[in-house]
Specification:
By secondary structure, the chain is mainly α. The chain is about 90% helix and about 0% strand. Belongs to the CD225/Dispanin family.
Length: about 70
């Protein structure tokens, strides 16, 4: 959950929101006893969070490159 929130707030929020949703889904499934579903949702949340971080870093680099070229 922490990685998802960090990715949403600091990097690329559109993907980060989906990571937070999947993290909440993983927590709810774990509490309901669906451990395999929780593991799948947690893994998806992790991939989405890292994707948000990657998109954010790429976007920041592009913005810096465009602004420095002016």
């Amino acid at each position: 959950m922490g990685l998802s929130i960090f990715a949403c707030l600091c990097f690329f929020w559109p993907v980060g929101i989906f990571a937070i949703i999947k993290s909440l889904e993983a927590r709810n499934r774990h509490m309901a006893g669906d451990y395999s579903g929780a593991l799948t949702s947690a893994q998806t949340a992790r991939y989405l969070a890292w994707g948000a971080i990657l998109c954010g870093v790429i976007l920041y680099v592009i913005i810096i490159a465009v602004e420095s070229a002016k």
